[in-house]
Amino acid sequence: MAHSAAPATAAPAITPISLKAIAPWALFFGVLMLVLLYFVGAEQGATALISGENVHEWVHDGRHLLGFPCH
Fold it and tell me: Which pLDDT value is given to residue 11?
């Protein structure tokens, strides 16, 4: 009974991603999350940037899911 051994291959080296490469994406997603948080949490009433109730109706369930009071 001969066992054929597969040749051992080295695992590919993992190269770290520099902070300079991550920073623009982190800033983009951070601003995106802040805008989303504003629309879900504060876009109604006195602080509304968009008139009408359309934005409120679109994010209404998300407000309740995240614990923001809305009525």
Answer: 84
